[in-house]
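Bug #77: duplicate submission created two jobs. Keeping one. Sequence:
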Amino acid sequence: MTDNKTLAVDPKLLEILVCPLTKGPLIFDREKSELVSKSAGIAYPIRNGIPIMLVEEARELDIAEGA
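Kept job's structure:
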């Protein structure tokens, strides 16, 4: 079984991916294996190296994370 936290996201992919909700930029959080949309206040999971870009799969950021 592969540990998701050791997987990286291709930097070129990060350049073109945007939040599907706001069309804003995403920030890669390696520790949590997520793509964070600060403008939407949500984080999209990365599973097996694949970003899951569905709003219904995203988690809401808490107040400390959203700042």
